[in-house]
Amino acid sequence: xxxxxxxxxxxxxxxxxxxxxxxxxxxxxxxxxxxxxxxxxxxxxxxxxxxxxxxxxxxxxxxxxxxxxxxxxxxxxxxxxxxxxxxxxxxxxxxxxxxxxxxxxxxxxxxxxxxxxxxxxxxxxxxxxxxxxxxxxxxxxxxxxxxxxxxxxxxxxxxxxxxxxxxxxxxxxxxxxxxxxxxxxxxxxxxxxxxxxxxxxxxxxxxxxxxxxxxxxxxxxxxxxxxxxxxxxxxxxxxxxxxxxxxxxxxxxxxxxxxxxxxxxxxxxxxxxxxxxxxxxxxxxxxxxxxxxxxxxxxxxxxxxxxxxxxxxxxxxxxxxxxxxxxxxxxxxxxxxxxxxxxxxxxxxxxxxxxxxx
Length: 358
What we know:
Radius of gyration: 23 Å
CATH architecture of the largest domain: Alpha-Beta Complex
Distance between the termini: 8 Å
CATH topology of the largest domain: Naphthalene 1,2-dioxygenase Alpha Subunit, Chain A, domain 1
Largest sheet: 7 strands, antiparallel
CATH superfamily of the largest domain: Naphthalene 1,2-dioxygenase Alpha Subunit, Chain A, domain 1
Helix content: 10-25%
C-alpha cells in the first residue's frame, strides 16, 4: 500500500497524488463472475462484480498471507482465496476461514476496499491519502454525463510516464504542428500568444489571438476527479451539432506506463444525436485514432529525462503551472500523512484493538 509519509514528492508524483478519483479501466473489462487484477497508481488491485453487477475494488492480497485474491474463486457475494480458502466480502470483511473456523481473523475488516463508481463506460475508484477517511463526492464532467451530450470512450495504454500525457493535453500549440494533417486541425496560425485564466474548478490555458479555429485552449479541472477538457472546431462534413469536445483523464500504471481515457463528446440531441453517432462510427472514429497514434508515437519516444534541461517558453505556461500545483499537493499530502502517523510512532506501532494490519 502506498504510504505518502515514507515517500519523497518525486516518488509520490510518479504514482499519482492521493485524495483523487482515478479511472481504472473500461467497464467492459470486468465481466460478471470474473476476478480482474490491475496495477494502478502504485497499488495492486482486484476488481470484481457482485451478483447485482456492482463493481468492487480492493487490494489484491488476502488478509491471511497476502496471496493474490485475483487467483481465487468468485463466489457471487464474496471472493475466496485459492491459497487457504479465506473468504472476504465487498467491504473487506473476512467472513469465513474454512481451515480454522472461529479464528480471530473472522469478522474483521482486514482488506482495504476502495470506493468505486462507474460512469461513461469507465470504472473509477477513490485513492485516499488516509484509507479511513470518506471520499470526496464524485463530480463527473458534463460532456460525459450531461443529458444533452453524447460521448464515446476511447481507452489506451501507453509506454510513457503519465506526466507526459498531461503535458501533451495542456499544450494546445502542438496541434498546429504534430496534427497539422488532421481534418479538424489543419487550419490556423503556427504562432500564438497564450494566457492563463482561473476558473472555479481549475484553470484555462487559451490563445489570446485565435478562437474557434484549431486546438485553441485546454482546461485543467480538479474537483476530486482530475481531467482535462478541450475543444476542436468541426468542419461541416462532420454533420450537425456543436464543436468536437474531448474530456480526458490519465492514470499511472507504473513509472513508465499509463492509462488514458479520452471521451469524444458532442452536444447534440434528437435526430442530430443519431446523425452524430452514425458519422462517428462510420467516418470520424478512424481519423481520431490516427491523431491519438501521432501522440502515442511522440510520447513513447520521449527520453526518460525529458523534464530535465527543458528550454521552456511562453507556450509552456500551463505545463509549468500544473507541475507546480501537483508538486505542492504531493508535498502537502506527505506532510499531513507524517503528522497522522506520528502518534502511532510514539506508541511504538501498537495497533488499535480489533484491527488487522493490511
